[in-house]
Specification:
With 75 residues, the chain is mostly helical. The chain contains three helices and no strands. The protein binds zinc ion. It comes from Tegillarca granosa.
Length: 75
C-alpha cells in the first residue's frame, strides 16, 4: 500500500471515530474543533516521518476517545 493510501485510510479511520463520537461537531470546520484538536492536527500535517505521523495520529485518536468518555459522563 502506498504512503498516500495509508494516510488516506488513517484519515478515514479518524473521521469515522469522530463521526461516531462527536456527531454534532463537523470535522471540516476548524472553528468547531478545540485547541487540542487543532494543535494535534497541525502536528499530523507537519510530521515528516511515518513514525511521527503515527504518533500524532494516535494522540488525536486518544484525545477524541477521551473527549467521548467525558461527553458520556456529562451528556
Ligand atoms: Zn479536541
Amino acid at each position: 500500500m502506498s504512503r498516500v493510501a495509508k494516510e488516506s485510510d488513517m484519515y478515514t479511520t479518524i473521521c469515522n471515530i469522530w463521526n461516531h463520537s462527536l456527531l454534532h461537531v463537523k470535522i471540516a470546520k476548524p472553528q468547531d474543533v478545540c485547541a487540542i484538536c487543532e494543535k494535534i492536527r497541525k502536528c499530523i500535517l507537519d510530521a515528516v516521518t511515518e513514525e511521527n505521523k503515527l504518533e500524532a495520529t494516535n494522540r488525536l485518536m486518544e484525545h477524541i476517545l477521551d473527549t467521548q468518555r467525558i461527553l458520556t459522563i456529562f451528556v
